[in-house]
Amino acid sequence: MSEEDASLRETVLALQKEVRALRAKATAAEAHLAICNLQAAYGYYVDKGLWDEAADMFAPDGTLEIAGRGVYIGQDRVRQYLHALPPYERGTIFNHMQLQPVIHIDPDGQTAKGRWRAFILIAWLGGEARWGEAVYENAYQLIDGVWRISKLHAFITFYCEYDRGPNHGGVPMVRKIDGLQPDQPSTHDYEAFPEIFIPPFHYANPVSGRSW
Amino acid sequence: MSEEDASLRETVLALQKEVRALRAKATAAEAHLAICNLQAAYGYYVDKGLWDEAADMFAPDGTLEIAGRGVYIGQDRVRQYLHALPPYERGTIFNHMQLQPVIHIDPDGQTAKGRWRAFILIAWLGGEARWGEAVYENAYQLIDGVWRISKLHAFITFYCEYDRGPNHGGVPMVRKIDGLQPDQPSTHDYEAFPEIFIPPFHYANPVSGRSW
Amino acid sequence: MSEEDASLRETVLALQKEVRALRAKATAAEAHLAICNLQAAYGYYVDKGLWDEAADMFAPDGTLEIAGRGVYIGQDRVRQYLHALPPYERGTIFNHMQLQPVIHIDPDGQTAKGRWRAFILIAWLGGEARWGEAVYENAYQLIDGVWRISKLHAFITFYCEYDRGPNHGGVPMVRKIDGLQPDQPSTHDYEAFPEIFIPPFHYANPVSGRSW
Lengths: 212, 212, 212
Known about the structure:
Chains A, B, C: Pfam families: SnoaL_4 (PF13577). The structure is a homotrimer. The first copy, chain A, has about 210 residues and is α+β, with helices and mostly antiparallel strands. Chain A contains three helices and six strands. Chain A has one domain (about 5-170): Nuclear Transport Factor 2, Chain: A. A six-stranded mixed sheet of chain A has the order 2-1-6-5-4-3. Chain A is elongated, with a radius of gyration of 22 Å. Chains in contact: A-B, A-C, B-C.
C-alpha cells in the first residue's frame, strides 16, 4: 500500500468515527424535537376533549398518573381514564398549556424523560373557573420509529378559584375519578397549595451534577 | 483494483449515503429551531406594537388572518392590518405569549407548518383588561436562506374580562378592523367561547397517523 | 495515481468538508436545546426557592440583574441575592414560567444569547397575589463542555394585583433587596407598567436584518 493510500484510509476511518458521533448528536436533537411536538400535540387534544387522540399517543403499556388518583396502566386503561374527564361542550374551557420542557434522551436513543409544566385554565359558564398548574415528570419510548408517551405523571401544584385568587386559598386535589379504580395506588403522597411539595426531578442539576 | 481498494471504495460510498441522511436530519432540526426563534421573535414585536418589525417577517406574498376578520394578502396588506391595531403607549399591556409549538418541516426543507398557542393578556389602564387565547395554524417559507411567515392564521378560542372571569361569559370576537377591508373573506366560520370550535390541525396524530 | 484513485480522493475531501459543515449545524442545535433545558430547569428551581441549585447554574463570573436592583457579579454574589428572596414555605406560590425562547449561538459555539419571558404568578395565602412578567436578555457560556448562565438580566414589564387586574394599575418595581448592595448600578433606567419600556433585543430582525 502506498503512503498516499494509507493516508486516505486513515482519513476515511477518521470520517467514519466523526460521522458516528454526528449521528448520535443529530438523532438526539431529532428525538428532543419530536418529543416536544408529541407533548405539545397531546396538550391540544386534551384542551378539546379529544380523548381517543390523546390515548393513542401512549405506548401499549404506557401509564398515567394525575394528582393523587393512582396509576392507570396500559393504553386501554389510560383511554378509560381520559374518557371519564369532562366533555368539551358549549360553555367549557379546559386549556392545558404545555410549557417549559426539560428533555433528556437516554444514551441508547430509545427512551427519554421530560419535565413539563401544564398551566391550566378551566371554566364552566355559569359555574366555576380555575387557574391551576401541574408539573409533569414524563417518560417516552421510541416504538417502530415513533415516539410515544410511556409515562405521564402530573403532580398538581395548585388550583385556585378564578374569582378569589390563590391568596384566598387553594382548591384541594381531587383524589378520585368517579366510577374508576386505579390499577395501582399513587406513587407519591402529597397535597397541593397551600401545602408545600416539590415534584421530584428526573435529572441532576445540569451544571453541578448534583441531585437535589 | 485490489480487494483493499474495493473495500475502501465501499466504505466511502456508505459514508456518502450516511452523510446525506445526516444532512437532512441536521437541516430539519436547524429549520425547526429557526422557526421557533422566528415565531417567538414575532410575539415580542407584537407585544410592543412594533408593527413594521412584525410585518417584515412575512414573505412578500404572505397572508394574515385573525379571528373572523378575513384574509389579508401580501406583506403590504399585512403591514396595513398590523398598523391598524392599538398602539403601545402608556397604560397598555398587549402581551401575546407564543407557546406550545408543533412544527413540521416539509420533506423538501423549503416550507413548514406550525401550530402554536398565543396566550394573551391585554389591558388599558382605567379601561378593560382581558385574558384570551388564539390557536395559530401557520405556514413558513425559506426564502434566500431565511425562514419567513408565509401564513399566519389565528383562531381566537376565547376572550374574557379580567374583572369577571370566563365562568361569567366570553367576549364575542371582533370581526372587523375599522377602516379596513380584507382581500378575501374568512376561511372558517366560527365563534369563540362560550361556543365550541376545534381549530383544524395541519398534522395527523403523530402516533396513530390518523387525521382527526 | 489512477483516475479511480483520484476520484475517490476527491470524494473523500468533499465528504470531509460536508462533515465539517454538519458538525457546526449539529453542535449549534445541541447547544440551542441544552440552553433551553438549562433555562427551563433554572425556572423550576426558582419556583421552589431552591436557591443553591439556581446559583450553581451560573458561570463563576456570571452576573444577575433583576428589575432596577443593580448588578450582582460572580456566582457567590448571585447566590447571596437569591437567598435574600422569599423562602418557599406553606402558603406560597412563586411560579416563574420560562417561556418563548429566542436563542442565538455565537459562531464559535462557546457563547450564546437568549431572550425569554418569565410569566409570573406569586401569592401568599392571606396576603397578596400578583401576576407579572419579566423579559430576560440572558447570555450563556460553555465551560468544560457544560452550558452555564453567564448573564441573567430580567426586565420587569408589569406586576399587578391578582385581586384588581392591570386595568386598575400596576405595582411599582421593587428597586432594592433588603440588606444587600449591588456591585454595580442598574444598566437601564426604566419603570414597569403603566409606564412604557421596550427591553432591548440582543438580535436584529431575523428577516430584515435591521436592528430595532
